[in-house]
Amino acid sequence: MFKLSDEGLKYVKTELTRYEAKQSAIIRCLYRAQDENNGWVSQEVIQHLSEVMEIPAAQIEEVATFYTMFNKTPVGKNHIQVCVTLTCGMLGGRELCDSMMKEAGCKKEGEVSPDGLFTFSKVECLGSCDTAPMLQVNRDSYIENLNTEKGVELVRNLRSKARGH
Question: Under 8 Å CB-to-CB from 155, ≥6 apart: which residues?
């Protein structure tokens, strides 16, 4: 059963004091809970947040399922989201994602690679049309001006880094 850490619980309670309406804190609290649940939001996470935040679980689930930044299934250590919206799509975003998935050993979008290191998602607009195609690795790394060769090299580098090379 999922429960926030003591630090996570303190974080949520602090966030609840920052807004007039508790619902306004849902996104920030979901981020925290997702981080503490190995990168995804399960029904247990939603139920626990509901109890801690004193908000109906349905309201938290609405937010978790609406926004693509909340993962509904377990993901690999590197969740790679490739933009496939108009400009990225026209400049090879889908082919980029497919070549990276093949290199990582993923047969389909959303699955975790056999080594547990990768999950790929094709997403809508990451907001960088002038440097398309681009992608996001986890929540903190954006990589732009890509092609399939650079994408495959990125997978190899992330795998090498994970193995300590």
Answer: 100, 103, 104, 118
User: Rounded CA gap, 94 and 99, in Å?
Assistant: 9
pTM of the model: 0.84
Residue 41 near residue 30 (C-beta atoms within 8 A):
yes
Question: CB pairs under 8 A, 24+ apart, for 42-47?
Answer: 42/2, 44/1, 44/2, 45/2
Q: Give the distance from CA 88 to its chain's centroid.
A: 19
What digits encode the pLDDT tens for the residues 29-68? Answer: 999 999 999 999 999 999 999 999 999 999 999 999 999 8
Given a contact cutoff of 8 angstroms between Cβ atoms, the answer to whether 124 and 161 are in contact is no
> 147: which DSSP letter?
-
Task: Report which of 137, 48, 140 is spatially closest to residue 97, judged by C-alpha positions.
Answer: 137
Amino acid residing at 144: E
The beta-strand segments (E) located in the chain are 78-83, 118-123, 135-137, 141-143
Inter-CA distances, 54 with 21, 69, 84, 120, 129, Å = 11, 23, 38, 34, 40
